[in-house]
Amino acid sequence: PPVTVVYLMLVLAGVGTHGTQCLIIAAVASHYPGHLRGTALGWALGTGRIGAVAAPQIGGLLLAAGLGVNSNFLAFAGAAAIAAVLLAAVGLKLKSKLSTSPSLTGASNV
Prior knowledge:
The longest helix is centred in the last third of the chain and has 33 residues, at 68-100. The chain has one domain. The chain contains 3 helices and no strands. 85% of the residues lie in helices and 0% in strands. The model has no long low-confidence stretch (mean pLDDT 83).
């Protein structure tokens, strides 16, 4: 694609990454009890940091192995697809939990 399109895609990816991190903080803070909130936030953000450190290394290894840029795209698109499926599963579980719990039917956290 043209360079302008690539830059636009990179900006959107950066905005999406930052927005996702902010939403993870809000989701963890609202769904965990107070005595577990700090630990849950630490685990959620720590897992994200592991991905942020490992992704460039994996990308470099794929390029060094001579697999080309397409392999990077496929690897990271696959990881994003897995994350989307897991996020949808969590959303469905929370939705079913809210609909079956009589004490939470008036509140909407999702």
